[in-house]
Write a structure and sequence with these properties.
The protein is mainly alpha-helical. The protein is built from 9 helices and no strands. The longest helix is centred in the last third of the chain and has 29 residues.
Length: 197
């Protein structure tokens, strides 16, 4: 069940990413819909599940993260393949693999601080409007700043590979750094909110 929900989350984030291919100038408006679908469907998103450090420990936590990460990857790649062969526009994502590791790392930390804050605040609200408001506030901010989200990158980098912009090793370079950065950013927020509860 967890793996299935992780695939769903990868699909939702990738679908939002596909929307940004069509209207890249409105990315900050379109992309937050992905996390809104994840939260409302209660599917499993790797970056949001970093908050589990407050509840799950040791190998069980690593197993949970690993299952969700792979599921997100499967869902993201599936949508990338469909989007590419459906002839959706292909933007140039070379900048994601050409950036230095320090830049990617810091952008990934900042990104997941906002994602985890969005997830945490959404859980504290009861209505659709309030959940949408906090999610759109946090996620549009990370998109505007150009931060790095590993699950979104699973989709964008897959598009780049399929389009011949770069190879799989370059995509893995970005994913490795942004995944670690996202974990650290999520842990920072997890520890902050733990003190408030």
């Amino acid at each position: 069940m967890r793996f299935k929900k992780a695939i769903m989350a990868g699909v939702f984030i990738a679908m939002a990413g596909a929307g940004t291919l069509c209207l890249p100038d409105y990315k900050a408006i379109i992309f937050p819909a992905g996390l809104l679908m994840v939260v409302l469907s209660q599917s499993e998103l790797f970056t949001g599940r970093i908050l589990l450090v407050n509840e799950v420990k040791g190998t069980e936590l690593l197993k949970w993260w690993g299952t969700v990460y792979i599921g997100n990857l499967v869902g993201s790649i599936a949508i990338a393949l469909m989007a590419f062969y459906a002839n959706l526009p292909c933007n140039d994502y070379s900048f994601k693999v050409e950036a230095g590791w320090g830049e990617l790392f810091l952008k990934a930390i900042l990104c997941n601080m906002l994602v985890c804050m969005a997830v945490f605040l959404a859980k504290k609200t009861d209505t659709f409007i309030s959940k949408a408001a906090v999610i759109y506030a946090c996620i549009s901010l990370f998109v505007l700043c150009g931060y790095e989200h590993c699950v979104a990158n699973m989709f964008y980098l897959s598009i780049g590979v399929l389009d011949g912009q770069f190879g799989i090793p370059a995509a893995l370079y970005n994913l490795a750094i942004t995944t670690v950065g996202n974990i650290i950013g999520g842990i920072i927020i997890a520890k902050m909110v733990a003190k408030e509860e």
